[in-house]
């Protein structure tokens, strides 16, 4: 019986906009001091899973997180823009209070910086799924039975990827807890190619904010 293949999905470390509760979308913001510490703490734990392939979103916060994994694994990360976060449209750069001031408190009530909100110019769940699910399937298909691949990406898009890979309706992604910065999920391919969620929101330990 062939050994299982594994796909590990890592969310990037914290940024200043994460700390302020701002929707980042495609804005290219790097890690802050805590995000760098989170990535350094996460990297050796994920590296212990012995990955043979490392792929990352092309945005700075993901690439900088992947750089710690490069150091820990000896792998060279491949950047794929399909792994980017939602384009958050009119919400980009705004906190809940700032967005509510523009569109009204009732319209902004469902705002969750980790999930989809219907905003002008924003990608839909389906649009994110159309790019991210095939990209992650390709990553998994590149490794042999018994091997592990790692992808570094973003919180809301990561949840859509999990839902799509498992064959769930993409809207079910909002039923998953928001992934912590530098948290990860593990999907394991069982016999017959079926994927199962083996772990979710794993962390190497919480680093207190200072």
In round numbers, the mean pLDDT is 91
Largest sheet: 6 strands, mixed
Q: Please tell me what the overall shape is.
A: globular
Instruction: Give the tally of structural domains.
Output: 1
Report strand order across the widest sheet.
Answer: 3-2-4-1-5-6
- Counting DSSP H or I runs of 4 or more residues, the number of helices is 7
Tell me the Rg in angstroms: 17 Å
Low-confidence stretches: none
Do you know the CATH topology? Rossmann fold
Helix/sheet category = alpha/beta
The name of the CATH architecture is 3-Layer(aba) Sandwich
Task: Classify the helix fraction into a percent range.
Answer: 25-40%
Q: How far do the termini sit from each other? A: 49 Å
Order of helices and strands: EHHEHEHHHEHEE
Beta-sheet strand percentage? 15-25%
Number of strands: 6
CATH class: Alpha Beta
CATH superfamily: Phosphoglycerate mutase-like
At a glance:
With 210 residues, this protein is an alpha/beta fold.
């Amino acid at each position: 019986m062939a050994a299982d293949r594994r796909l590990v999905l890592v969310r990037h470390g914290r940024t200043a906009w994460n700390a302020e509760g701002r929707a980042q979308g495609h804005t290219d913001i790097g890690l802050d001091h805590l995000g760098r510490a989170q990535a350094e703490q996460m990297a050796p734990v994920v590296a212990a899973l012995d990955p043979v392939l490392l792929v990352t979103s092309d945005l700075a916060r993901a690439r900088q997180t992947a750089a710690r994994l490069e150091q820990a694994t000896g792998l060279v990360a491949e950047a794929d823009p399909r792994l980017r976060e939602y384009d958050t449209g009119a919400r980009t750069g705004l906190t809940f209070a700032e967005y509510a001031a523009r569109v009204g408190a009732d319209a902004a009530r469902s705002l969750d910086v980790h999930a989809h909100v219907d905003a002008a110019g924003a990608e839909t769940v389906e649009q994110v799924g159309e790019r991210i699910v095939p990209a992650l399937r390709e990553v998994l298909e590149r490794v042999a039975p018994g091997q592990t691949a790692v992808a570094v990406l973003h919180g809301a898009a990561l949840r859509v990827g999990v839902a799509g890979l498992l064959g769930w309706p993409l809207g079910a992604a909002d039923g998953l807890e928001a992934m912590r910065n530098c948290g990860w999920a593990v999907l394991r391919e069982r016999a017959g190619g079926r994927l199962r969620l083996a772990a979710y929101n794993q962390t190497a330990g919480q680093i207190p904010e200072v």
